[in-house]
Model the fold of this input.
Amino acid sequence: MSINILICGIGGQGTVLAAKLLDQAALLGGLTVHSAETIGMAQRGGSVVSHVRIGEDCWSPLIPFGQADMIIAFEMTEAARNIRYLKKNGTMIVNSHIATGAENSGGLDILEFLEKNCASLHIVDSKKICAELGTPKVANTVLLGAALSHGIEGINMQSAIEAVRTTVKPALAEINIKALEKGFGGKS
Done:
């Protein structure tokens, strides 16, 4: 068994923390995990991509193009930018947010592009869920919960909750657990 998950977004959205939570949840389940981040000008809103590879058959932390079982995209433009990693039958979990000024790419609607090129596309309105929770700072765990609701072999909600408890500062753990659960419950 091997599972390849790419998490992408822009600096400050919590992609690195989401990858750490996924790593920890897999480790708690007794799975082997390899991960790496590629960060480009993250402090200035640049692209951040985290590669998470789970399983004994993974020899490198980087996912080759066309091999991601799932992409968790914190922003639609980053989803489109990283789609080359997704398997033909892969799952795309994407936040409904589109960065300002990036609504169109060469006249091509991003959502239309994703719908045309993803076999299994799931849009998550994390902004709405975060408003219900009273903070925009948990969009990453909302999206992680949504990804779990679509199935990540070897990782269940209990291991994800335990990963939050062991990885996130204690003062922020409960709100992140609520976000994880809301994301899971808001299955698209």
